[in-house]
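Researcher: Re-running this chain for the archive, since the previous output was lost when a drive failed. Same request as before.
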Amino acid sequence: MAFCPPGGDASDGCGHVKALVWHGRRDVRVDEVPDARIEEPTDAVVRMTSTGLCGSDLHLYEVLGPFLNSGDILGHEPMGIVESVGSAVTNLSPGDRVVMPFQISCGSCYFCERGLQTQCETTQVREKGMGAALYGYTELYGAVPGAQAELLRVLHADYNPIKVPEGPPDDRFVYLSDVLPTSWQAVAYADVPEGGTLLVLGAGPIGDMSARIARHLGHRVIVVDHVPERLDRVRARGAETIDLGEHADDVGAVVRDLTDGRGADSVIDAVGMEAHGAGMAKAMQSMVGFLPDALAKPLMEKAGIDRLSAVYTAIDAVRRGGTVSLIGVYGGAADPMPLLKMFDKQVQFRMGQANVRRWVDDLMPLLGDDDPLGVDDFATHRLPLEDAPEAYAMFQEKRDGAVKIVFQPGS
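Model: Regenerated structure tokens:
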């Protein structure tokens, strides 16, 4: 069996399914695309029952367009039911309920064996100089068809899928694809000392869940954002908050006032490349978005910059000798960093895409009926796939209290 060619139809043995497809900057549509099929013995095909809209998907909607092609299927937070498996897949059977990590890894290479699945040597996109391939995330990461679709071809299905039990709703497990391991890694990398204070920049899905995990582990948490509904959510789970709308220029000073003049022991930057309040960098990102791809790609690869207000705030607000955990996505190739300040303060940095399978054993015990992290009601919106174009716009504009959107194909 093979993936149906473009234009394939029933006479070729090809069906069609619906998928969320990129057509241009701020232009995503639900189109009919050929069925996903088994191409390799280690493949599986999974019918999506839930698939998340991630904050990093908004970078595709706005900034990273030069690395996308019209027709690319987006999405990297998949959960569903196995429909078919390749001949080499012995760990899955049709009907199994599974969650797929957002990255594709083999499980047996040097890096996978060391818990660094995002650096998988088998799926590294070497021609772009990048790490492991990702679902639905540009040619930089392999141009693999994504998960905001009715069917997903799952690569390396002999290792990647996480089998989950029947019974609880999808919301209990779907976040194992990205939100939970990404947030867990963010907190682990932050290395908060016992009795210490963690500052979380951004109360989107990852910032919110990072705060929940840190509170569950017993840490004091302060969260910064400018959206009232998001601040209310984290405050309800026990975090202290700083309203960026009131303290746009003095977050570091406020944090020091709350921490005996020192700053936070650890900081998580859960914002990334499109941080609020970086006017010049925003203008440059917007300008690049209107250039032809032939010009925009090399410019971004060699001289691209991010909006760095969040990471600069992290460096300012962390105490001397503290740790900054970067989990928000950055893509700049020429970002100016205040190395003197970082060096003088002895700031430690840890960063990178989450190594999903590394953290699953830590997370599964937290997904019982007691629901200590509040995953069952974490989503603010559950929508049919047909509503995805409006959902992207709503999420980008932070309308209607949108924090976490989950699509339910076929609903």
